[in-house]
Amino acid sequence: MDAKLSGQSDILQIQSFVEKLVQNLEKVIIGKHQTLELVVIGLLCQGHLLIEDVPGVGKTMLARSLAKSIECTFRRIQFTPDMLPSDVTGVYIFNQVTREFEFRPGPIMSQIVLADEINRATPKTQSALLEAMEERQVTVDGITHKLSPPFMVMGTQNPIEYEGTFQLPEAQLDRFLMRVKLGYPSLKDEITILEKQQIVHPIDDLEPVATVEEVIRMQNLVRHVYVAPVIKQYIVDLTRSTRGNSDVYLGSSPRGSLGLFRVGQARAAMNGRDYVLPDDIKALAEHVLAHRMMIDPAARLREITSDLIVGEILRVLPVPGGDLTRRL
Predict the structure, then answer these.
(1) Is 164 domain-assigned?
(2) What is the largest distance, in Å, between two alpha-carbon atoms of the chain?
(3) pTM of the predicted model, to two decimals?
(4) pLDDT at residue 299, as a whole number
(5) Which of 166, 179, 186, 247 is a plausible cystine mate for 50, CB 3.0–4.6 Å?
């Protein structure tokens, strides 16, 4: 049975969980507090993250640090153009001794999976992730294998280099809850990175601060944060506005609305509330909706991006008011 919010104490537990997890991640990832909060929000929402940034800013270390912090198994998949779907999901091999076929699980059979340079794989190989990301299971030769919770895919791609890459299909992009960026560190933070890694890498000494059971309990608690009807209407209006924009030929799917709903609940709990405010939705709308939109080629020539369109929608869409707290 799912855990239910039993008052402010449960909200304080979620807050404490987020704080200790972010603080632990900051021992490895320096100066990226807001991004780390987004990562933890994604974890609380049982979502997957697309990390779009240049090489060398800590994308792999972020995934490894998260796995170590919550005592989860971790696998890294380096995507290449010659990769096959079976290289991701696993394959059945005939055992000459037992005279039976045995399943050799692929790297997707882990709890935290880093899909590194995901856009370098062919669409056929990328499609091997679709079932795993949505249904948290993989089917090989007609046999279904469940994935261990809390299953999370963290995909990375380089936004600058396009040679030898394949554009992620819409179905793949839609399965990522949020798109986040790390960016270059500040001058002070980059000096701190040099000092921390002078002898050993901080990740070598990183200790877990939460268990898998605790993560699952927090995920269940977050789902019971109250969302007022006017906030639900605001979420749907925001998502539907991406579909009617003249510069967009494919807007966000209903999965985008559900994503906004979930991250709003997580952000509210993270900030000590058992109810969602419009500010929770506005703060995360770009991360949830922008990567789900396909911009018209003519608009791209005018340097119009999905981020700009979401920002304009947020500016003109009326913000709901009134009593947004739980009604007894």
Answers:
(1) no
(2) 70
(3) 0.91
(4) 82
(5) 179
